[in-house]
Design a protein that fits this description.
Layout: E1 2-3, H1 9-18, H2 24-35, H3 49-58, E2 59-60, E3 63-69, E4 75-80, E5 86-95, E6 100-105, E7 109-111, H4 120-124, E8 126-129, H5 132-146, E9 152-155, H6 165-176, E10 188-192, H7 198-204, E11 209-213, H8 219-225, H9 234-248, E12 252-258, H10 266-276, E13 282-287, H11 301-313, E14 317-320, H12 334-346
Parallel strand pairs: 1-2, 6-9, 9-10, 10-11, 11-12, 12-13, 13-14
Antiparallel strand pairs: 3-4, 4-5, 5-6, 7-8
Helix pairs in contact: 1-2, 5-6, 7-9, 10-11
This protein binds iron/sulfur cluster (SF4).
Iron/sulfur cluster binds near residues 115, 122, 158, 160 and 332.
Length: about 350
């Protein structure tokens, strides 16, 4: 049995026609899934009974395995895929005095082959790439079980999206279609450590916003912490991102995880400001969420503030991101690791 969301709209139309139904049934099915978030074919009441049975016998959806709600409103979801793999996604509500918006953070791989030393997903190793349908389902699944409509999509969960390029682009295409998610490309952000596939993605992929996970201002230190051999040198990644920003006008942000005693000194701030000065990027400083097993810990608040002030004085745009969902293990890969640990110990 496959996922119905693995079919793009045209292939779904073909399936509908081969099943002896008129092609408009494809639109009805997508409306049930994307607009009404219904995952039970039997409940798709405007489809003929016989066709609902065909759909039920042919397709499935991932299932919700676990869901944790933080006191700050963050909801973390753990989904079980058909082959038993577990993946995470996170719903992040943001409130200001004037507006509220909901971001959905998606995984693109089960595990991650990049194996960053500071990341729970990386520590857990790589299982496999997700299909387009498994990526897309996280959006409608979170909207359904979170009881809300998303404002933004973030490809920032488990996995490096550029190492699953075809399925990630396929998912973005459906998310931006009128019949699908109806998200504008500006409402989608893809996060990457800067794999060599970045060049192809920026030249030929969808015009989404980019978050470059830089984290370390020096090449040698960065290579130790982000050990995959196909990560681009910092200078090349920044050059590509600057070109992309000028050509597309899309926001490019630089993500910088503040790890105590590793990359949080004023010397690191000075190296970072030399790299970025005069470039059209916004820097996000991220408080580190401890992972296990690892001896890294978060930078003290005072260090983060001093780091930010140094960058500001150097003329950079910089924001300190609020930690979200720390009471529910909301850092990428933590809920999955905790669940697998729990299952291991009980078996
Ligand atoms: Fe993979 Fe991103 Fe984690 Fe690095 S930080 S191991 S790229 S998921």
């Amino acid at each position: 049995m496959g996922l119905i969301l693995d079919l793009d709209f045209e292939h779904l139309q073909e399936f509908v026609l081969e099943s002896g139904e008129p092609s408009f049934r494809a639109r009805q099915i997508w409306e049930w899934i994307f607009k009404k978030r219904t995952f039970d074919f039997q409940s798709m009441s405007n489809l003929p009974e016989k066709f609902r049975a065909v759909l039920r016998d042919s397709f499935s959806f991932p299932t919700l395995k676990r869901c944790s709600r933080s006191s700050d409103g963050t909801i973390k979801f753990l989904w079980a895929l058909e082959d038993g793999e577990l993946i995470e996604s996170v719903l992040l509500p943001y409130f200001t005095s004037r507006k509220k918006w909901i971001s959905l953070c998606l995984s693109t791989q089960a595990g991650c082959p990049v194996r960053c030393l500071f990341c729970q997903t990386g520590i857990g190793g790589f299982r496999r790439n997700l299909s387009r349908g498994e990526i897309l389902f996280q959006v409608v699944g979170m909207e359904k079980f979170g009881g809300t409509k998303a404002s933004r999509i973030l490809f920032m969960g488990m996995g490096e999206p550029l190492l699953n390029l075809r399925e990630t682009i396929g998912a973005v295409e459906v998310l931006t279609r009128k019949e699908g998610g109806e998200f504008g490309e500006r409402r989608i952000t893809l996060s990457t450590v800067g794999m060599r596939e970045l060049e192809e993605f920026l030249r030929n992929g969808p015009r989404v916003e980019i978050a470059y996970s830089l984290h370390f201002p020096e090449e040698n230190q960065r290579k130790r912490f982000i050990p995959h051999p196909h990560v681009l040198p910092i200078s090349r990644a920044l050059e590509l991102l600057e070109e992309y920003h000028s050509a597309s006008g899309r926001v490019v942000s630089i993500e910088y995880l503040m790890i105590k005693g590793i990359n949080d000194s004023l010397d690191s701030a000075s190296k970072l400001s030399s790299l970025l000065r005069g470039k059209p990027f916004h820097v996000n400083l991220l408080p580190f969420n401890p992972v296990s097993p690892s001896s890294f810990s978060p930078s003290p608040r005072g260090y983060i503030l001093a780091f930010k002030n140094f960058l500001r004085k150097s003329g950079l745009n910089v924001t300190i991101r609020k930690p979200r969902g720390s009471d529910i293990q909301a850092a990428c890969g933590q809920l999955r690791a905790q669940t697998l640990d729990g299952e291991d110990s009980s078996s």
